[in-house]
Structures are given as structure tokens and as C-alpha cells.
What we know:
The complex is a heterodimer.
Chain A: E1 3-5, E2 10-14, E3 19-21, E4 24-26, E5 32-38, E6 44-50, E7 56-58, E8 64-68, E9 73-78, E10 87-94, E11 104-105, E12 109-114
Chain B: E1 4-7, E2 10-13, E3 18-25, E4 31-37, E5 44-50, E6 53-57, E7 64-70, E8 73-79, E9 87-94, E10 96-97, E11 100-101, E12 105-106, E13 110-114
Parallel strand pairs in B: 2-13
Antiparallel strand pairs in B: 1-3, 3-8, 4-5, 4-9, 5-6, 7-8, 9-12, 9-13, 10-11
Amino acid sequence: xxxxxxxxxxxxxxxxxxxxxxxxxxxxxxxxxxxxxxxxxxxxxxxxxxxxxxxxxxxxxxxxxxxxxxxxxxxxxxxxxxxxxxxxxxxxxxxxxxxxxxxxxxxxxxxxxxx
Amino acid sequence: xxxxxxxxxxxxxxxxxxxxxxxxxxxxxxxxxxxxxxxxxxxxxxxxxxxxxxxxxxxxxxxxxxxxxxxxxxxxxxxxxxxxxxxxxxxxxxxxxxxxxxxxxxxxxxxxxxx
Lengths: 115, 115
């Protein structure tokens, strides 16, 4: 069964500092990988996705993520965090083929930005 | 309207009431989903519809009844709910094909409070 682990429940960074949110997945083959962001009381917004090809993917709002097959990881990064980035971030994994269309989400990382 | 819309955004209902949540997607997708998001819990997939056919029901109690009249609309009918059903209910849509599933796009959610 596929699973996603986000080991950090809460992270606090200063505005302007760099950010890395960790995501590890368990899956039998190369999956589709996603990062979503959720502001309070809102739905989830897609930040970026990895299907194949270049292992460094760029997303919206200046975010990027790197797929590392050897480590089963898909960590999210941003070089300089803005106060508006404070939100909850979810990593998700989905099957490439033949596995239906169910996404498995991690439990989320709450990001706090100190001014 | 663009993306995925949900109405109402907030709903307060008694345990004996009957109400419905509505979701509409304007993305031309062929799959729609209901998720439940409770505080301190991972995102829970409730129902999946592919081409208007229900393909997944994750052991959801019968007091939740989904309906998908066409590929653009999804309803969640609620009756005799319990206080523990209070949560944010999220609708999502995606495009699926034989080559795999793709990213899901979420609505803003309906915040449900059961009194």
C-alpha cells in the first residue's frame, strides 16, 4: 500500500529565510507526486507536481521540489520565505498507471513565519 | 465561475436535519471526489466518482449519501448526522485516463457544524 510521511508537524522560520519541508513516500514504483498548500478555512491549492523527467520541478509562488528516487523523497523548498507563506502544506502520492485515481496524502506540515 | 466551487461555505445543522452540499467543477474533468478534513486528522477520502459512476466508498456511514448527476456536479446529502461529523468537507476533481491519474483540484470546502 502506498503511504506518505511528513515527519515535521510544525515548522517555524523567519521571513526571508530558506525553507525545506520533508516528504517521504512508500510505493512500489515511481508514483506521481504532489505538493499542496492550504490556508486556514480554504481548500487545497496545487503548488507543483512530478510525473517524470527532470527531478527538480518548479511550482507556483517560488516553490520547487526535488524527487530523489534513492531516498524515496520529494522535499519542498523555497529560497526566501514570505509572511504570506504561512499555511499548512501537504505532500501527496498517486499511482502512475493501473492503480486507479486515489491520492494518498501526508498528515501535513504547519508552517509559521516569524516577522 | 472557474475551478471548483462549493456551496454553502458554512453550514450549521441539527442532528435531525437533512441538508445537501453541492460541488461544481468548471474544468472539464471526468472524476470527482469528496474528502473529510477534521482537526488533528489526515485528509480522509470519502467517495470517488469516475464518469459519474461511484468507484470508491471508503466505509462511509450511510448518513452520508453522494450523488453525481453528471461529470460536472457532485452532491453530498446529509441526514441524522452526529457531532463528530463536524468537519471541513472538500470536493475535488481531476482528469483520469488509462495512462494514469492526474492532479486533483480542490474547492474551498464547506465548514459543517453539527449541533
